């Protein structure tokens, strides 16, 4: 148990220091997909009884990288988690909002008041938050438990609405 906590701290320290991987490899290898349409992406997740999990991220953010690489990517690959990302600084790539109108990731995250990175949102088919957002990485050793609690709460809300 103590050895696992030490390894996590060692990994986290290397990640923050930027020594784990070259920056281009980190960005390419750990990127989550970016939705073209929030409503279509959320509806696909909801049909399966899952929330749309959106990571609000910023390029070069080591904490965002920690959340992506250690939690969201493995859950997406191993358990089929519907995890996507939006870059708070992206003002150019078109994004179809929940209202059907074109927007950008920067405008959408600002509308959600989700400018702090990393922030993880748990959304339903109409864009409603199903569980409390997960903001920042206060204690990396407990982040997985916080994430699981929010996912369980979001899934419960979805199940109650069916």
Topology:
Blueprint: H1 2-17, H2 23-30, H3 38-47, E1 52-57, H4 62-79, E2 83-87, E3 95-96, E4 102-103, H5 105-111, E5 119-123, E6 134-135, H6 143-161
Parallel strand pairs: 1-2
Antiparallel strand pairs: 1-5, 3-4, 5-6
Helix pairs in contact: 1-4
**Cα shape:** globular
Number of strands: 6
Instruction: Report the helical percentage.
Output: 40-55%
CATH class: Alpha Beta
CATH architecture: 3-Layer(aba) Sandwich
Task: Give the number of domains.
Answer: 1
Poorly predicted ranges? 1-8, 14-28
Report on the structure:
There is one protein chain. The chain has a single domain (2-161), classed as Glutaredoxin, CATH 3.40.30. Helix 4 links the parallel strand 1 and strand 2 (83-87). It has 162 residues and is an alpha+beta fold. The protein is built from six helices and six strands; from the N terminus they run H-H-H-E-H-E-E-E-H-E-E-H. The chain has a four-stranded mixed beta sheet with strand order 2-1-5-6, sandwiched between helices. 48% of the residues lie in helices and 14% in strands.
